[in-house]
Amino acid sequence: MNVTIEEQIRSDQERTLVVSGEVDAFTAPQLREKLMPLCQENCKVYLNLSQVDYMDSTGLGVLIGAFKKLRSQRGRLILTGVSPRLKRLLNITGLSEILEIEDRV
């Protein structure tokens, strides 16, 4: 399965990436390629995951990498539109305690 990633500009310091499809070992590098350049000082990056059907540990690794980079630069990674299935995965891995999750899209 493929993944599509669309960038939406909210402001100079706020960006949204809308992710659709599956984020796995094959597609996670595409997400990393789009996400990491947005991780700049004092920036808020919203990751809309409402159309993500599946995410594996490789995808979770991308989220952790972006979170760490943003945190070191006083930025924020905010997950939105997290499905119950993905929320369960984040809870099981303990990432729901670390990552910022908003219910709204």
Automatic annotation (TrEMBL):
Residue ranges of every copy of the STAS domain listed in the record: 17-105
UniProt keyword list: Phosphoprotein
Q: Which family does it belong to?
A: Belongs to the anti-sigma-factor antagonist family.
Q: What does this protein do?
A: Positive regulator of sigma-B activity. Non-phosphorylated RsbV binds to RsbW, preventing its association with sigma-B. When phosphorylated, releases RsbW, which is then free to complex with and inactivate sigma-B.
Kindly provide the name given to this protein in its UniProt entry.
Anti-sigma factor antagonist
Coiled-coil features, chain-numbered ranges: none
In terms of SUPFAM superfamilies, this protein maps to: SpoIIaa-like (SSF52091)
**Gene3D superfamilies assigned to the protein according to its UniProt record, in alphabetical order:** STAS domain
Q: Where is the signal peptide?
A: none
Query: From what organism does this protein derive?
Result: Melghirimyces algeriensis
What are this entry's molecular-function GO terms?
Answer: anti-sigma factor antagonist activity
